[in-house]
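Hi support team,

I've been running sequence recovery on a batch of backbones for a student project. Most finish fine, but this one hangs at about 90% for roughly twenty minutes before it completes. I'm not sure whether the input is malformed or the queue is just slow. I've pasted the structure tokens below so you can try to reproduce it. Let me know if you need the job ID as well.

Thanks,
M.K.
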């Protein structure tokens, strides 16, 4: 598993936030917003503490992998936004030609495609995406 994650993160040796082996400076309140009684706002939190890993090596690996996931999420969001725009053009054209805004046969094709590629959770993902793409014309 470590080898696989190293391969995934090997493209990011100088990724932002890497300040020494597995350490990053984070100050201020804890996640809940309440002050952390164990440390003053000026003290740093190690990557090991932040990631829940038990070694600096694992924390560095997790941090790099999370940065890659964040970048992938940004790309996925951009692609969904692009899909929404294309879908709006299709819907406008269909309505202008006297058709309905939604083509249920096409939606069934999309659902089947996602289910075939990702299994049952793919259907739920496709439903959410289709809901987003039905739009606000």
């Amino acid at each position: 598993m470590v080898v696989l994650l190293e391969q995934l993160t090997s493209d990011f040796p100088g990724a932002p936030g890497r300040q020494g082996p597995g350490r990053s400076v984070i100050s201020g309140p804890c996640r809940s917003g309440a002050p952390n009684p164990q440390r003053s706002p000026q003290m740093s939190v190690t990557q090991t503490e932040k990631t829940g890993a038990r070694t600096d090596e694992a924390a560095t690996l997790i941090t790099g992998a999370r940065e890659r996931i964040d970048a992938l999420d940004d790309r996925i969001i951009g692609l969904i936004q692009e899909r929404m725009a294309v879908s709006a053009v299709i819907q406008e054209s269909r309505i202008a030609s006297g058709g309905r805004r939604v083509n249920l046969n096409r939606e069934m094709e999309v659902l089947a495609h996602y289910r075939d590629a990702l299994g049952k959770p793919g259907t739920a993902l496709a439903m959410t995406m289709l809901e987003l793409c039905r739009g606000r014309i």
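--
Follow-up from support: It reproduced on our side and the slowdown came from queue contention, not your input. Residues 1-7, 9-34, 39-43 have pLDDT under 50 and may be disordered. No action needed from you.
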